[in-house]
């Protein structure tokens, strides 16, 4: 391994074309500098400099070493700053997970935009998955933070931070009997109609939330079809297969052949969003995300 001090000395000699001037630049005596250059040539088994009556001239091998040395020295000089930046959370990578329905809410892109503006050197790795898989990803340290429709289960040492409550609304085919109703639709008025829902395995939290709203109103919804993704369910609604209860943010995402109505119930129907993470005082990038959520 080549000593970085020898590389620095060699660069000075090449740039000064004179060992005496290079010694002054390096604030050292000429004989030790001469020995360093000779040692470097011995290590590489080649002449790096041609000795001239009034200075030195770099050889072809020396030119190649000079270019490599500049790169190595620049990298070495940048290391302390980079290490410091990483320790302060200003560089590195943040891993963020979210369920499909959370990914459709405008709060998430706004959060990512604000984070990018504040910490432009931090890479953001995103993962969309079901809530169970995302919980596992936090437990196994694959993600730093995930956004779900329900808090984390108890007993895993995870922290759940309530971010917001999103109203649930009704999504209807535009030819549905309730589509022309001007007022909010009471949840009990949906009892006799066919439902299309986002599949439980993919969106367990939202699925359970919708069912709970129906059960609280006193009925079990008649589910005629489930969709693999929330956006897929909109295609089925637009096709007239059934209606659904969806987060209000969907209203701005899709309105072709679909009518959205406010939902009325004795117990307000909401779809909350929680940030779930593992408490870690050393994860500075996570702390930056949490600060943006405040």
Automatic annotation (TrEMBL):
Keyword field contains Transcription: yes
GO terms for MF: DNA binding; DNA-binding transcription factor activity
Gene3D superfamilies given in the database record: Periplasmic binding protein-like II (3.40.190.10), Winged helix-like DNA-binding domain superfamily/Winged helix DNA-binding domain (1.10.10.10)
Domain HTH lysR-type positions: 2-59
GO CC terms of this entry: protein-DNA complex
Superkingdom of this protein's organism: Bacteria
Keyword Ubl conjugation recorded: no
Keyword list, A-Z: DNA-binding, Transcription, Transcription regulation
InterPro entries given in the database record: LysR_HTH_N, LysR_subst-bd, WH-like_DNA-bd_sf, WH_DNA-bd_sf
Family: Belongs to the LysR transcriptional regulatory family.
Protein name as it appears in the record: LysR family transcriptional regulator
Organism: Acinetobacter rongchengensis
């Amino acid at each position: 391994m080549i000593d970085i001090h020898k590389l620095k000395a060699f660069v000075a000699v090449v740039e000064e074309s004179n060992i005496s001037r290079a010694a002054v630049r390096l604030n050292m005596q000429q004989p030790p500098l001469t020995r360093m250059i000779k040692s470097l040539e011995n290590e590489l088994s080649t002449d790096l400099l041609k000795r001239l009556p009034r200075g030195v001239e770099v050889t072809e091998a020396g030119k190649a070493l000079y270019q490599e040395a500049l790169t190595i020295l620049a990298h070495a000089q940048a290391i302390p700053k980079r290490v410091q930046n990483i320790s302060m959370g200003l560089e590195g990578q943040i891993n963020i997970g979210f369920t499909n329905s959370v990914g459709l809410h405008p709060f998430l892109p706004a959060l990512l935009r604000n984070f990018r503006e504040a910490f432009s050197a931090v890479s953001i790795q995103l993962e969309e998955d079901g809530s169970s898989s995302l919980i596992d990803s936090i437990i196994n340290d694959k993600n730093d933070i995930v956004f779900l429709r329900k808090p984390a289960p108890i007993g895993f040492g995870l922290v759940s931070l309530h971010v917001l409550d999103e109203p649930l609304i009704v999504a209807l085919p535009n030819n549905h009997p309730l589509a022309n109703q001007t007022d909010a639709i009471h949840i009990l008025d949906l009892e006799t109609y066919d439902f299309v829902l986002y599949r439980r395995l993919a969106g367990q939290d939202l699925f359970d939330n919708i069912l709970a709203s129906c059960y609280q109103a006193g009925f079990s919804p008649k589910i005629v079809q489930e969709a693999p993704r929330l956006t897929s369910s909109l295609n089925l609604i637009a096709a007239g297969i059934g209606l659904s209860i969806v987060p209000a943010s969907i209203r701005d995402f899709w309105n072709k052949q679909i009518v959205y109505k406010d939902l009325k119930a004795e117990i307000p129907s909401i779809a909350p969003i929680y940030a779930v993470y593992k408490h870690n005082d050393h994860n500075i990038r996570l702390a930056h995300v949490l600060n943006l959520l405040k």
